[in-house]
Amino acid sequence: MTEKNHYLQGIAASPGIVIGRAWVLSEMGEVKGSFRLLFTEEEQAAEVGRLQAAMDQAHEDLTRLCQEISAESPEHAHLIELHLLILKDQMLCEEPLRLIREERLNAEWALYRAFEKIKDLFRRIEDPYIRGRLADVESVYRRLVGNLTGKTATRLFDTQEPVIIVAHDLSPAETTQMANSKVVGFVTERGGKTSHTTIMAQALEIPAVVGLDNATWEIKPGDDVIIDGLLGRVILNPDRGILEKYRRRQVEFAAFKAEVAQFCTFLAYTLDHHPTRILANIELPEEVQLAIKSGADGVGLYRTEFLYLRQRQLPTEEELYRDYKKVVEAMVPRPVTIRTLDIGGDKFLSPLEYPQEMNPALGLRAIRFCLKEPGIFRIQLKAILRASAHGQVRIMFPLISSIKEVREGRRLLQEVKEELRREGHSFDPHLPVGAMIEVPAAVTLASLLAQEADFFSIGTNDLIQYALAIDRGNKQVAGLYQPLHPAVIRMIQQVVEAGRAAGIPVAVCGEMAGDPLYLAILLGLGVDELSMNHMSIPMVKRVIRLINYKEAQEMARQVLDMVTVDEINDFAVQEMSRRFPEIFRFGSALAGASLP
Amino acid sequence: MSEQKSELSAVTKELWVENRLGLHARPAMKINNLAQRYKADLVLEKDGLQINARDLLAILALDCPQGTRLVVKATGPEASEAVLSVCRLFARKFDEP
Lengths: 596, 97
Hints:
The structure holds two protein chains of two kinds.
Chain A: E1 6-9, E2 11-14, E3 17-24, H1 28-32, H2 41-72, H3 77-87, H4 90-103, H5 107-123, H6 128-131, H7 134-149, H8 153-158, E4 163-167, H9 172-178, E5 183-188, H10 196-204, E6 208-210, H11 215-218, E7 224-228, E8 233-236, H12 240-262, E9 268-269, E10 275-282, H13 287-294, E11 299-302, H14 306-309, H15 317-331, E12 335-339, H16 366-372, H17 374-387, E13 392-397, H18 403-423, E14 433-437, H19 440-444, H20 446-449, E15 455-458, H21 460-468, H22 486-502, E16 506-508, H23 516-525, E17 529-532, H24 537-546, H25 549-561, H26 565-579, H27 581-584, H28 587-590
Helix pairs in contact in A: 2-3, 2-4, 2-7, 3-7, 4-5, 5-7, 12-24, 15-17, 17-18, 23-25
Chain B: H1 2-8, E1 11-16, H2 25-37, E2 41-46, E3 49-52, H3 56-61, E4 69-75, H4 79-91
Antiparallel strand pairs in B: 1-4, 2-3, 2-4
Helix pairs in contact in B: 2-4
């Protein structure tokens, strides 16, 4: 057993608090101990029998699982069908039988060897998407090993005790299995904030911590585990005091969540009836449903890089159009703000050849890259325009640093419109065109840019990075990345004023937008729209309903008079936690940030 | 004699992977299902490398992203029907984008 009250820190993937017993998914090392050579024909026959029984069991379990999932979420059923087919595969299932018969290996060893061979084969696959299927083979392999050693995944779901799964990685299929089982949460070594397993955990509302290195080593089978999916924290073998504290937190959070979710699908007004639109940032089309459920009043930032990054060929107009249309139609009548490509040439898996850059943040990326490769850009513009026929679409150009870039982008858009007209495609002729404000130059030029754009969207992540000259990835300076730096506050104010003077709306779409700590200040500065991770939406809407717009304006005014980051930070923390103590017990953590 | 016969009934056809994601899990499953349905031995060949179409993992491991050229070869009974079905499946892009 691991020591008492042992804290581990990972990445908060899915919010909530759960308490349960650790189930560590068997790793190779555990199996290796049971490798042995067979000496008699009887032993060989017995091992063949054991392996076949393990396969039959797996077949039976998967078939049942497949039926259950087809009934509940048919779109995930093919994942299990795939596992059924893998189970019939020669390499995984006939090869070990041969190894038992001809090389006298026992079932575990034979299965391990067969799997290692498949692993070698897959390692040579170049296409990352196809190579990723190894995860499914591994899942079937683990199931077979589990059946052989008696630690079956299915038996686990039958336990009466709440179980917390600890694994190197989980496939989305395995995550799906956890719904309606005794599995209350999971911890993985792999994964990040936007991996598929994370999205699945959020959809199923299973608290999870991912990206926790060495979790399968640090956490021993049978350990008592608390998962704090709000802070990305895992506590092993808590003593009674901590356990009780977390039980309380669990109850409070459940009540908080229910309360917050209550009115989340309605537009949020402040106490003095000032409306603020709260939108979602999305990357994958599947996230739209989560966004709607969380109460998004639209999509404020649709990142479109995914299709360009995961394949070697450039996506076609038709492929892009189909993805965009899916998102746009699902959100109707809410608006969808599509950001055009925001990557550099060096990121492409495609036939384009660009050299690696010394300093990609300052390199050929985003709108600069698109204007240099108008062929690629026009295809995306066409797809966006065509999608605009199906709902309310807005387009925005990232990393704008000059008037010329907006004009060039608009000119291309106009050309493409005429092309579409000739081809007989319909589109929204008044599609609003926005400029993302992420470069200090754009802030300085805001009043001029406002004459050229239909709206502004402030990308605070990049703006803070460029304005303060801080690379967040660099641990030496990451602490200097300060959203409440007086320079940042003044920049936001300047952009809002320029927008107001020209009569165009101003949105904020960086991480800052989703943290309730900054909410009153942003509102008070006059920001019209906030766009954030879908998980923050219900709580942000709740805070807005508790804020007085007049008071928020007063707070913003006070902040503009302050001269140091510390002053502003202290003020924000004090004011917000004084006004909304119940929110800030969970609030900032829910948004993925912690109080300073 | 029997070898000669199977040589005679060998049917081959050139194919291109046209769907966006290439021969990933679902298309591979569809090819695999087809191969199970016919009596013919169905082989996929890429750059001289041959695999049995009844072997799902082998299809995946053949590593065929969009744009890959393949040759499908069937021998034995129902060889031409099997090849025709495979061709149709490829032409339909496995019902994918």
